[in-house]
Design brief:
The protein has 155 residues and is mostly beta strands. It has a single domain, classed as NusG, N-terminal domain (Alpha-Beta Plaits), CATH 3.30.70.940. Helix content is 14%, strand content 43%. The protein contains 2 helices and 13 strands. Strands 1, 2, 5, 6 and 9 form a 5-stranded antiparallel beta sheet that branches. A hairpin with a 3-residue loop joins strand 11 and strand 12.
Amino acid sequence: MLWYVLYTKSRSEKKTAQHLDEMGIECYCPVRREVRQWSDRKKKVDVPVLPGMVLVRLPDKERSRVFESPLAVRYLFWDGQPAIVREEEITALRESLEQGVVLEHEVTQLVPGARIDLSDYGFEAQEGTIKYVSSNHCWIVMESLGFVVKLKLAK
């Protein structure tokens, strides 16, 4: 089974993941804990790392099942094919988030044809998954999606 990227309705990533889980569809909505301040209180909230997206794992012929959830919008496509996320990329993202040192994140889209060369920093890619950690940032390149997830680490 492959991991696919599913777009959700605005600000409903966690609810979509909950619906899909109840339907028996394996899904992953990566979140990070953040402290938000209101005028009268502070509260820890889980913020989705991939805004508007949930990762789902199911057989190709069952991909249409996700649309039984009213919050699912469409799949992400890359080069005319459904974008596939490799298991190594999911594992790298989970490991980075489980360490609990992420302060903020930024998602940027890769420009087709642009290359990110990390060999200048003494790191090399492993099977297309590039993971670079500086003193205060960590980059996880999801080439199959065309995205770079930039994580700011606690000092």
